[in-house]
Amino acid sequence: MTANGATGDRPGRSGRRPGQSGAREAILAAARARFAEAGFDKTSIRAVAADAGVDPALVHHYFGTKQQLFGAVVQLPVDPELTLSAVDAAPLDRLGETIIRAVLSVWDSPAGDGVVAMVRSIIAGGDTSLARSFILEVVLERVRQRIATPEDDGRLRVALVGSQMIGLLMARKIVGIEPMASAPAEELISAIAPTLQRYLFGEI
Amino acid sequence: MTANGATGDRPGRSGRRPGQSGAREAILAAARARFAEAGFDKTSIRAVAADAGVDPALVHHYFGTKQQLFGAVVQLPVDPELTLSAVDAAPLDRLGETIIRAVLSVWDSPAGDGVVAMVRSIIAGGDTSLARSFILEVVLERVRQRIATPEDDGRLRVALVGSQMIGLLMARKIVGIEPMASAPAEELISAIAPTLQRYLFGEI
Description:
Two copies of one chain form a homodimer.
Chain A: H1 20-38, H2 45-52, H3 56-63, H4 66-73, H5 80-89, H6 95-107, H7 112-125, H8 129-147, H9 155-174, H10 185-201
């Protein structure tokens, strides 16, 4: 696990008007509780601020957007916005390839170790509600908005994409199934991108 | 976790000629150590029997084949042979569909809870060597033998199949990504079987 959010902890201190580092901790604790209880969509910065006894502007000051606050709560080792903006910008006929290329570039980077540690701890902990909320409401929702049509909301399609990406992470980084664990990224991209493209746009 | 292998444990008892229940435990302990150290392929019933101080015939008597002994060591809640024999019998043009159909029928059965518990505990425990050995050398190897050609040993192909099946297990049973978590099995089979078939026989 990464250490962000663990700095400035003062166990003996509490109250409605906490100091600077106490406020940061109070916001994180309130956000963790709200996100776990209500999920990403139904949690507002305003409600988190009220629970923490601070002004909403202070939440934005410390953590930025609601998505970045969520990233701090689940202790994401990387800013998901970097990957998601690549997905937003991709042409639709290369959306599958863009997704696997962007995701592999994070997992195969030094920051990938943090992702693996996070996934392990989520699964081991037993409470997968935050992970589910993050995958469904932040990551897959961004992809879904790009493919939804009046006839098909795209929910099953993006869930299928998510399942193949989770399986790739497990095979490459956690269980270590050869030759996927050590294959060059380009080999996996050419094998898996057509799967994702079919899940997103093909006959399913 | 299931309780097989945990019966008849007598902590105070040991020795080169253990009694009936002690022998069973000694065989399991020896097999666990050998499989973890050397993997499935390089472990022999003879070596396990020697380590446990019993006759190889007694190992077969208690546990059956080496694969069944392995199943007892990793506390598999189901006999993998039931699924694997379906894979052996499938026509090649329906191999992908057969795999996902057989696997889903186990996961969606009452025994599936045991599979989920096993996967969780393997990931949480950190030591994935037994899981890797089981997936690679028992399950995927049986599929690989059906698709290997002189030009392509099929290792990457079956690993890709494994990654999609692990991802399906995670999405449906562990993280709970809707609508995959509650979709009818037939809907998932029709969406995913073509992926597996392409991984096994198509352009990758």
